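Our example copied in:
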Amino acid sequence: MLSYICLDWVLLALLTGSTISELVVIGEVGQDVTVPCHYSVWNRDGITSMCWGRDRCPKSKCSRPIIWTDGWKVTEQHSSRYQLRGDLQSGDVSLTILDAREADSGIYCCRVEIPGWFNDQLTNHKVVVKKARISTASPHTYTSEQTSDPGSTNESSSTDTRTWPSVSASEAPQTASTPCSGSPDCLDVAANLQIWQDNTSVSLPSQQHPEHGLYVGIGSCAALLLILILALFLT
C-alpha cells in the first residue's frame, strides 16, 4: 500500500513539475532592458546557482544559456551585453540587456536551482524590443497676425495690414484750375488739403483768412466804445 502511495506521488511530481510563471517586458532599441528575477535568501546557505536561457525553461538547466552564476559571481557569460547587475547574495538575479536590439526580442528563461527534487524556481519572460518612437508631426507654422511690440520701428504683418484711407480725386477738395503762384490763399488751401489727407476723420476749422476775424474783433470793440461814450454824454 505504501509503495503505491509513493509511486503516485512520484508520478504526480513528474507530471506537474516546477511551477512556471510568465512575464512580459517591453523595451526600446538602443536602451538597456532589465528582465526581473528574484528568489528568497534567508541566510548564506540559501544562496544558490541559477542560469538565464534564450527559450522556455526546459525540465532541467537552461536551453541556449546566455549567463550562469553560482550565487556569488558570474561563472559563464555568452556576451558582455548580458549582465547581472543586482545583488546576487540577496537573491537579485535580474538580467540586464545592454544596448537592446530588435533581435533580442523573444522568450527568456530564469531558472533558480533550489536544492531538492523539482524545487527549481522557473520564470519565462517574453521580451519585446521596439524601435524608438519618432515624432512625425510637422513643425507648427504660425501665421503672423500681430504687429511688432510698441517702440519697434518695424511693423510687419502677413494677414493684418493697416491701410490708411486713400483720397480719390473726386473726394479731394476742389481747388482753382489755375496754378498757384505763391499767393497766401493758395498756400492755405494746399496746407488744409495735406492735413485732410493725413487724417480724414478730423475736421479742422478753416484758416484761410485769419485777418478777417481780427477786423471783426476791432470793429466790435469800437462799436461798444462808441455806445459807452454816447451813454456818458447823455447822462
The chain has a mean pLDDT of 73. Strands lie at 20-28, 33-35, 50-53, 65-69, 74-77, 82-84, 95-97, 106-112, 121-130. The radius of gyration is 51 Å.
